[in-house]
Write a structure and sequence with these properties.
With 369 residues, the protein is mostly beta strands. The protein is built from two helices and 25 strands. It folds into three domains: 48-152, Immunoglobulin-like, CATH 2.60.40; 156-265, Immunoglobulin-like (Sandwich), CATH 2.60.40; 268-367, Immunoglobulin-like (Sandwich), CATH 2.60.40. The longest helix has 23 residues, at 2-24.
């Protein structure tokens, strides 16, 4: 009996299904279709087009200068194009609309200009900045206008001085030491050097010659000078710190001033070359020693003409008979000293025929403990 009941239910279901196919099936009735959905069309839209590259290469440019470049913006669409400024990568780069407002409207088939202004300030090296522009173009809601180039000093010196210093390395007290630098201007090849002076003109002499074609090709300059420096014998032994001033006719950088840094060696050697005392206890005090070696064991007289404040300095010969020409320099921080820090030098006057003066750098840091 149950089997007949199930069979009857199946027949009813199949009949209902057949009715559904007749009413809604594809069959041969071409009038049947699903309800039409929303196609997403929104009518005419603007279309932004930027003339040329989005990156402006401005090439070499001096520091503390302002540059500008304009881009032409077209509306190739069928409705009004709205553009506005969204921001920039730094305050040194600013975009300006043609009417100088916050937003601009460009009619279909029309165009406008956007000017980007950038300031190089004191930055030296590669320069890459951009300004962001927003639009109501649904296919291009924003784009970036970029500027790129290389910023240099108005007058360039090679090798580049670090923190306005020129490193001379080891300078001999016995014989001349020579070095040279290149000086040129990328934006003023006709640069003229008008005057060169040093803090010790009798011992540090500067001469200029035009750079050769090979040298110009190496540094990619159109014209320039090689400044030859000769350090003659006679400078005090020890730390060297002198000045070099180069005057020229460039209106943006008419004066270059550098510190010449090095170590002068000669008949008297100082081991180590400088004295450092760090983390000294002011309560207990402390001391450190240097050794002075005179070439060929020559007996030499020393006089202390300058020393850092708050420390004691003494100098005595080594009493060992086999160690002639050797002297011991002792720097002492007295016990009970207050906390202090000093960066100075010890200056010794000598009776050696080739070393009139000896300078030894000293750095002392004393704590309160």
């Amino acid at each position: 009996m149950l089997r007949w009941v199930i069979l009857a239910v199946v027949v009813v279901v199949l009949a209902a299904a057949g009715t559904f196919v007749v009413q809604y099936g594809t069959g041969s009735d071409p009038s049947w279709s699903l309800p039409a959905g929303d196609s997403g069309a929104s009518g005419p839209v603007p279309k932004v087009e930027i003339e040329g590259s989005l990156v402006h290469e401005f090439g070499p440019m001096p520091t503390q200068k302002t540059g500008t470049h304009k881009w032409v913006i077209h509306n190739r669409g069928e409705s009004d194009l709205q553009i506005w400024l969204s921001g920039s990568s730094c305050v040194c780069t600013v975009a300006k609309l043609k009417d100088e407002g916050a937003k601009e409207v460009v009619k279909p088939g029309g165009s406008t200009e956007i000017e980007v202004e950038w300031k190089t300030k004191d930055m030296v090296g590669e320069f890459s900045k951009n300004a962001t522009i927003s639009t109501n173009d649904p296919r291009r809601p924003e784009f970036k206008l970029n500027v790129h180039g290389l910023v240099h000093n108005p007058v360039v010196v090679l090798p580049p001085p670090e923190q306005n210093t020129i490193q001379l390395g080891v300078v001999s007290n016995d014989e001349p030491t020579r070095t040279s630098i290149a000086v040129f201007s990328p934006n003023r090849p006709e640069l003229k050097l008008t005057k060169i002076v040093t803090s010790k003109p009798e011992l540090i002499v500067a001469q200029t010659v035009p750079l050769s074609k090979t040298e110009l090709a190496q540094i990619k300059a159109k014209a320039g000078y090689r400044v030859n420096l000769e350090i003659k014998p006679g400078l005090p032994q020890g730390a060297l710190r002198e000045e070099l001033i180069i005057e020229n006719d460039h209106p943006d950088q008419p004066r270059l001033q550098y510190t010449l840094i090095g170590t002068v060696t000669g008949p008297i050697s100082v081991i180590p070359a400088s004295l450092q005392m760090v983390t000294v206890s002011g309560k207990r005090g402390g001391k450190n020693e240097l050794t002075l070696l005179v070439r060929e064991g020559r007996s030499t007289s020393f006089t202390i003409t300058h020393k850092p404040e708050k420390v004691d300095v003494s100098l005595e010969p080594n009493e060992t008979p086999t160690l002639k020409g050797r002297y011991r320099l002792t720097v002492t921080v007295p016990p009970g000293s207050p906390a202090f820090q000093v960066d100075d030098e010890i200056v010794l006057k000598t009776d050696h025929p080739r070393v009139k003066e000896l300078r030894i750098p000293v750095s002392v840091v004393v704590g309160s403990g």
